[in-house]
Amino acid sequence: MANKYRGEIDAEIGGRRRVLVLTLGALAELEQAFGAHDLMALAERFGSGRMAARDLIRIIGAGLRGAGELISDDEVAELQADGGAPAYVRIAADLIAATFGEEPPRGGA
Question: How much is the pTM?
Answer without folding.
Answer: 0.89
